[in-house]
Description:
Layout: H1 3-13, E1 16-20, H2 27-42, E2 46-51, E3 68-70, E4 85-89, H3 101-106, E5 110-115, E6 126-129, H4 136-147, H5 154-167, H6 178-188, H7 194-202, H8 207-218, E7 221-222, E8 228-233, H9 235-240, E9 263-270, E10 273-280, H10 286-291, E11 296-297, E12 301-307, H11 311-323
Parallel strand pairs: 1-2, 1-4, 2-3, 4-5, 5-6, 8-9
Antiparallel strand pairs: 7-8, 9-10, 10-12, 11-12
Helix pairs in contact: 2-5, 4-5, 5-6
Amino acid sequence: MNAFTELKKIIEANNSFLLMTHVNPDPDALGSELAFYSILKKLGKQVRVVNHSATPYNLEFMDEEKIIEKFDAEKHSELFAQVDVCVILDLNNAGRVVKMESGLRSFKGLKVCIDHHQDPEDIFDLIVGGTEYSATGEILFRFIKETKIAELDSFIANQLYVAIMTDTGSFRFERTTPEVHQMIAELISYGINPPEVYDKVYNQFNFGRVKLLGEALSTMQLDSTKQIAYMIVTKEMLERNETSEADVDGFVNYCLTIAGVEIGILFYELKDGIKISFRSKGEIAVNKLAAEFNGGGHRNASGSRLFNVTIDSIKEKVITTTQKYLNN
């Protein structure tokens, strides 16, 4: 029995479901949650979608019906006791649901993971997906088509289109296969307007974010090899521009626009530590680099969170460690 068949059986055998995704959700996370929510509702299931983080303002168009709830410890104190199955989407490590982690780990019902990242944590009753998929949205598309559990409609198609479009870097990343394009062609047939979707995702930011980007770019430097570019975003920069952590998403990619640069790094200051984003070209496995700093992710896009450290105290160590991963 393959994972899709097992997932279908779990859905059919249970009535109530809780869906969640990682801190600071991206379009693949949100689109996958909302698409899976719609599948379950079509089958008459009880479903709630609860996330640690609020939906980023530029992605609120994905959830016009306000399906997604932001976790509140008091309001959701009995949340995990009220469902049969807990499904996490677009992540495979319980720590990435932050304040919901203890509830997830102690949950007595079935735990299902639907994800396309490497090295899943061993706490799930079923893992659906794998690194061969371009996005969690692709996993759900394949699940629908293979099991025929529900009919595609314009809502699901829109969610999966946004999920796959963004996680393939607008169809420029390595896992953008002929099959992905065939899938996208089918999704577009449900009335999707690609230029309009792209504009909503990438061209509707606050003015403060654009100013923040300018400041972040002004911090960019090259290491001694000229193959590593890094930039810094501080709490003071965010406050001055009236922005949030979600506004920093995508900044690190600018490091890779410099000729000769193979690895980009973003150091982002948190209230209780720092976040480091890594990006790379070709075969350079920054997921292994991130693992050296208690992080992980994809081969070419990964990250770490470190607590009770400062950027100044860790920066040189990170850069020195990164140099070992260059393809000299």
